[in-house]
């Protein structure tokens, strides 16, 4: 398994090398050098290192996701529990769910134009939209499929609604919460890069890539940015997976 | 004393017609009947999980849910809790979170010492059912309700569990209502066997059991079996 993964990566690099002879693409080693250089050293046009760009993107994603999860998780549990509330929310959810978060970008920039640092707020908002729905749906699905037998067992032992929520429904929804967080972070990460491309915020990986394109097609820098996005996305997913494994030992 | 006198209708159709019997303190009452005779429904009524017409009283009063321990046919353990944490469930609801030592003791009583930190997915069917029994015993219930707890176990495990349950009951002397479709099991465990039959189902008879020895092949055992079987068979209705 592990070996095959290594082979896969080697294949990718070989194909990349070969393509760099044919199309306008910098070779892997020159990108690698650029990556190593820009990681901690400021890139001259924007005056910031790759690490600084990454950190500001990550902060935006984490704040947008945090707000999204704080609302989506309780809402998912409530609508998974009560059919009436689920009906009430489902119309609203169904209308907004199919809208790609990117479609909100222009509107968000207008809505938050009057705020202090409107671009940042708009970007956090777009991440919020992107992370909210996948998380909500995942939590709701698990909360809905709570074993009725366990709820009945709790009742037979004298549990009231609050006990049932705390001791049965929430732990039973935990797998849904964790996968909701993981998917939400993934979508949020994709959204922030797109959002950063559309407005100047001075920092951020999406912004960095866009500027590198605008100042004259600096492919090495662009690919460096893409790689950073990939690595961070992978790490975020991996961290939540580890947490999942730890918390869901009983599975 | 536990007094039961109930009827139950479902969608306008009567399914239980004035089922009446009583259990003295320390009685082990086995309820037998064919499937669909409302045995489980009866237990659920006592547990307050099902509505009914009529009366269920314990020492002359309405039953307090907190005085009941329920053992289900499917173990209904919380899969994210270890054996010990599952046993603690009822104690937590009673605000006795501190009683880990109590939970440990009960687990030991059902023969699960050393399995405290196992999750249900790591236990066998018999062990899970033991945890279920321990969970019910831990709250020190005045009435223990058991709904075919051994039905899904293999024969050898089942007989072993019956022996152990008998020993536990001998020690703890709880009032037990035990639903089963096995006549054998009912006679082996019970001090009383309540036979439910018919549609709507009624109490066809109550047999007091007093075995000199709990041996399934003894004459007295077989004699009891015959009597229960006669009550259960449709011919005896006419």
Give the overall form of chain B.
Answer: globular
Task: Let me know the number of strands of chain A.
Answer: 0
- How far apart the termini of chain A lie comes to 23 Å
Overall average pLDDT of chain B: 87
Report the strand count of chain B.
Answer: 10
Largest sheet of chain B: 6 strands, mixed
What fraction strand of chain A? under 5%
Order of helices and strands of chain B: EEEHEEEHHHEHEHEEH
- Percentage of residues assigned to helices of chain A: over 70%
| Poorly predicted regions of chain B | none
Amino-to-carboxy terminus distance of chain B: 33 Å
Largest sheet of chain A: none
Which structural category fits the helices and strands of chain A? mainly alpha
Q: From the coordinates shown, what is the CATH architecture of chain B?
A: 3-Layer(aba) Sandwich
Number of domains of chain A: 1
The number of helices of chain B is: 7
Number of domains of chain B: 1
Radius of gyration of chain A: 22 Å
CATH superfamily of chain B: P-loop containing nucleotide triphosphate hydrolases
- Average pLDDT, all residues of chain A: 90
């Amino acid at each position: 398994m592990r070996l095959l993964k290594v082979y896969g990566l080697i294949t990718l690099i070989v194909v990349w090398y070969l393509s760099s002879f044919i199309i306008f693409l910098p070779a892997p080693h020159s990108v690698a050098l650029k990556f190593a250089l820009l990681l901690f050293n400021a890139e001259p046009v924007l005056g910031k290192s790759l690490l600084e760009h990454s950190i500001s993107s990550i902060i935006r994603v984490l704040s947008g996701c945090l707000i999204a999860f704080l609302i989506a998780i309780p809402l998912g549990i409530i609508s998974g529990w009560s059919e009436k509330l689920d009906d009430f929310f489902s119309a609203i959810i169904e209308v907004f769910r199919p809208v790609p978060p990117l479609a909100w970008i222009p509107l968000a920039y207008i809505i938050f134009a009057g705020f202090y640092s409107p671009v940042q707020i708009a970007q956090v908002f777009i991440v919020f939209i992107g992370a909210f729905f996948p998380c909500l749906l995942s939590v709701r699905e698990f909360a809905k499929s709570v074993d009725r037998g366990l709820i009945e067992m709790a009742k037979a032992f004298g549990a009231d609604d609050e006990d049932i929520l705390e001791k049965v429904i929430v732990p039973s929804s935990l797998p849904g919460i964790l996968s909701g967080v993981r998917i939400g972070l993934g979508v949020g990460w994709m959204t922030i890069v797109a959002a950063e491309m559309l407005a100047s915020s001075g920092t951020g990986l999406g912004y960095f890539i866009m500027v590198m394109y605008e100042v004259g097609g600096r492919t090495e820098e662009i690919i460096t940015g893409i790689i950073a996005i990939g690595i961070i996305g992978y790490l975020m997913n991996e961290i939540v997976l580890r947490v999942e494994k730890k918390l869901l030992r009983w599975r | 004393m536990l007094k039961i006198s109930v009827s139950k209708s479902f969608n306008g159709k009567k399914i239980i017609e004035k089922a009446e019997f009583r259990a003295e303190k320390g009685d082990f009452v086995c309820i037998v009947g064919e499937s669909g005779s409302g045995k489980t429904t009866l237990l659920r009524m006592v547990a307050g999980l099902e509505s009914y017409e009529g009366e269920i009283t314990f020492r002359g009063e309405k039953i307090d849910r907190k005085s009941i321990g329920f053992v289900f046919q499917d173990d209904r353990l919380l899969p994210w809790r270890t054996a010990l944490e599952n046993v603690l469930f009822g104690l937590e609801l009673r605000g006795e979170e501190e009683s880990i030592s109590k939970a440990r003791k009960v687990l030991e009583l059902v023969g699960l010492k050393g399995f405290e930190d196992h999750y249900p997915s790591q236990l066998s069917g018999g062990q899970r059912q033991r945890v279920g029994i321990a969970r019910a015993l831990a709250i020190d219930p005045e009435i223990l309700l058991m709904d075919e707890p051994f039905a899904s176990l293999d024969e050898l495990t089942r007989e072993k569990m019956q022996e152990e349950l008998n020993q536990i009951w001998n020690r703890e002397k709880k009032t037990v209502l035990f639903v089963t479709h096995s006549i054998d099991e009912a006679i082996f465990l019970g001090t009383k066997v309540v036979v439910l039959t018919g549609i709507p189902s009624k109490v066809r008879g109550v047999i007091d059991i007093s075995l000199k020895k709990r041996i399934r092949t003894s004459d007295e055992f077989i004699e009891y079996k015959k009597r229960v079987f006669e009550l259960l068979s449709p011919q005896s209705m006419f």
